[in-house]
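re: that complex we talked abt at group meeting.

here r the seqs, copy pasted straight from the sheet so there may be weird spacing, ignore it
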Amino acid sequence: MVAEASAPLLRLDNCTMRFGGLTAVSELTLEIRERELIGLIGPNGAGKTTVFNLITGVYCPTAGTIKFAGETISGMESHQITRRGIARTFQNTRLFPSLTVFDNVRVGLQLHSHSGLAEALWRSARFYHEEEKIEKEALELLEIFNLGRFRHSMARGLPYGDQRRLEIVRALATRPKLLLLDEPAAGMNPTEKSELMKLVQFIQEKFGISILLVEHDMQVVMGICQRVAVLDYGIKIAEDTPAKIRSDPKVCEAYLGEPAQQ
Amino acid sequence: MIRLPPKVLLLLGIVACFLLSFAAHSRFLNAYYLDIILGIGINIILAVSLNLINGYTGQFSLGHAGFMAVGAYTAASVTTFWGPAFLRAFGTAKTGGVPVLFLIALCAGGLLAALVGIAVGVPSLRLKGDYLAIVTLGFGEIIRVIFQNIEAVGPSRGMKGIATYTTFFWTYSWVAITIFTVLSLVHSTYGRGFLAVHDDEVAASAMGINTTRYKVTAFIVGAFFAGIAGGLYAHLKTFIAPAGFDFMMSIEIVTIVILGGMGNTPGVIAAAVLLTLLPQGLRVLAGLQIGGHSLRWVAELRMIIYALLIILIMLTRPQGLFSVHGLKPRQAPG
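got the structure back, here u go
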């Protein structure tokens, strides 16, 4: 099969993360191919966010390696990993509150600018040309997600739903190959959730990128993901299509407990 | 409206300083007022440069007086120990020897202070908030103690008889360069990184920003200008002593930044003017007599008034006295 033949974009190989005596993630192996939308689910404390922090370099795995586009990224710092094409959002939105909406996106685009300190001071024609390009791209991104009208507002002043969307826009501004979304549906009502599902699918099609979705909400994950991996106590207990995951007894057990003895 | 590029504005600013310098050093302005005006300029350089570290980048430093001391002692040493030989070789004021010597001395002071900025910045990067403040405070004290123990610079008695090279032109040209540098940096896509580090380091890092690099850069640029201010100060007062660069000096600069508003350059400039004039105003007040009672005690209360000011501002206007930031109403959509 073609999909099998192509090398995975991201590959976690037997990754383990221990915090003292606690093993948050245990020998996890996970692959994400290009243009794939994968869900990572599991009960509270299963280690989902830890997996995110491993991929994005917030933690360095205790054992195992992480490869992205053929390059080992475990052990790199967050900003180096972002430069290679992995962007993320956070479970609790972490925008830059004292910057405007526009500037939040501009910070994301900053890594594609060739102007450093010297250029910022000297300001040659090239500097202005580049600033203009960045400005244009930032505004285009904001327009795609209907946030253009807020561009001069402070990020902290946006309504909650818009803040979450802005965080996704900011992540996209780094021009990622892989986007990690950490519980994007947290705190949303059913209408907002169905809008979010459309948005995630739209992003995947429009930008042609892979997405790893960590989510608590089964409806969201089952609705849009091509593959779902289930974590429980840091161990991957299942990985399959949404339909098969739904009927997997081990998954039901992890979420609802063992069936009663009859 | 035509907007001039910043570097053209800087050039115009320096030309204006050059022209104004003739007026400032004529007989129309007495030496006392000139001294205050130059003092204001030096405080602006100190506060605007500290604002890059404490305000825009959010790294609370209490070591600015230390960087200033490095610049002051370096520049004074250059002009005192090496100056005479230089002037003999290249001529004096009339042939342009003095300005060249002074520029070399100031830049040497600034660069050495910047080097020390790296030395402080790199190890303190793992620290945040209070811890960073304590480390920078300790560093400032170490610098002071080092100068107190170098025989050549007159240990705790201080260095006397430094040449009076600091003029209106030198001071305010450097004021212009400092403001230009900080504003140009901050108002660029590159410079938004400083504010991103200030707001949320984890998120900044996730956006591909090398937070370490930005923090060290802020320390280097801030320290460089503190060093320049130190050199100007030494050649204005003609006397420097370690006691003048103690912890209270750092606190004074921090007070200016807080008063003006963290990350608000015009506010910080206004606060620098206000707080440099404050002791002079108090001095005038202390000379007055009301109903036969002398108000001499007022002059003694300068530091208490400082402290009260900080408390009052923190309670009523935590965003700074001159800051509109945060009060600005949200723009209507559309």
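couple things i noticed - Strands of chain B lie at 289-290, 293-294. The interface with chain A takes residues 5-7, 180-181, 184-185, 188-193, 195-196, 198-200, 202-211, 217, 263, 325-326, 328, 330-331, 333-334 of chain B (CB under 8 Å).
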